[in-house]
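Thread: quick sanity check before group meeting

JM: Hey all, I'm pulling together slides for Thursday and realized we never actually wrote out the predicted structure for the chain we discussed last week. Dropping the sequence here so it's in one place. If anyone has concerns about the input, flag it before I start.
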Amino acid sequence: MMDAILEVVPKICQLGKRLVQVDIIRNDLDGVRQDLQNTVDDMKRMVKNEEADPRKKRKNVVVAYFRQAEGYIGSAQSVLNSLQDESWLLKRMMWVLSIERHLREGQELLDKGNQLQGQGLTNNGIRKRGEKLPMVEDQYIGTTLSGIRDSAYQAMTGGRAQCIGIYGHRGAGKTNLMKHLYNKAFEDVQEFEAVFWAKAPDIEPDQRNYNKALQNCVADGMFVDLDNNDAHDEVRCAGRIMARLQEIGQGRAVFFLDNVKEDFPAYELLGIPSQMTPESTGVNCILVFSTLSKDVCNRMKCDHTIKLELLEEEEAKDLFLHEVKLDNDQLFSRRDQERTKKVAIQVAKECARMPLAIIIIARSMSGIEDHREWNNRLNEMVGTISSINKEEDIILEQLKFGYYCLKDSTVQRCFLAAAKLLPNDCQVAKRIIIDKWKNCGLIGKDREEMYVDDQGHVILNRLERMCLIQVAPDKQTVTMNKWIRKMADTVS
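JM (edit): ok, ran it. Output follows.
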């Protein structure tokens, strides 16, 4: 009997000890949980600051640690929630072993966190993606643009294209299309191992300066440090860019280069393989770029070329009404909405199906419910009264860049002369325009007649490739968009 009592006494003492300690160790666990939470928060701030350097990437062991610590914090909190003061004391004692286990695990995680901070949280990793580009959330995408986007993406993923060129006049929506393709590729981790974006530099008078600027733009987009100095070595810099692509491995990469002004040797200057070099370089990289001129696409030897045309009339109207937000019942009564919408459709028509003009004019009128203001804007656009708004000036300034890119003074003068023959979207025969150029002495000085005609057709073809004129399906007549013609009036 005495032996049995002696065996029970230690257990009773242990039970009493736990009865006394349950609240103490609960507070200890809460302290460890809070300390670990603070440690994790501090480490995440450190990692974020270090990753501001694109060459830095958090270690896999750090990623695993964050996951383990966050799981532990949730588990410890569940234990603490089960030990509220109003709980029955003996019931709370049942959690003592769990509390003690969590205390040990929490202390181990704290020690591990301190160890990881001492070893460094990041290392130099290969960054394979830039950042997702911001897009307007409720952006209107018509059937035409949607079809072009899907066709271009199919060319990218189907292995049919190594170099894709997107061309069209200023404000045709090239950058918008590029952004759609980039974000789609950015999210497609199965198809594309790496996705990068850069904007091409402005043209420099000195070709060497332009080459350097272009290499810097592309290297920055790929997070490559060229370590530039005064003695800029183009070949070595191209090698560094290609080395980054080789580091990515055999997975497919795609590089988007927006707003290219003139052609360039992609392989020799940037280390981006052409159609002839992927196998020999061990690099699988698609180049997608936008430009004003089809000539650039031709000289870049694109195997897939996309021209952004003017919008169809119905899509132009839908885009305008979407941007101007006339369907807001909070702003308009039903009668005013219908009356204003009729005038708005006429204003949209005066935008001549050009996305740049549609968006700028529509946004300038967004929220305006007084139909008299809409009538006034319509009269301004048709030329009945002089304009008091600046939106048209903004549109024309952007379009002037296409004129300046002609560079050749003879071609520029021929463009301005053609604009005078093409008012109000009318069609004029190529023959008439060429004869006008000859009679004005713009072409054909000291040349035989057939050579003069050839020169005239060469200039017309160049203006078409720069999207400054449109050629009718019969190939014999041309027309000019209203905004292009207005732009010509501002530079003549």
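AS: nice. Residues 2-124 form one domain. The chain has four domains: 2-124, 143-307, 313-389, 399-491.
JM: adding both to the slides.
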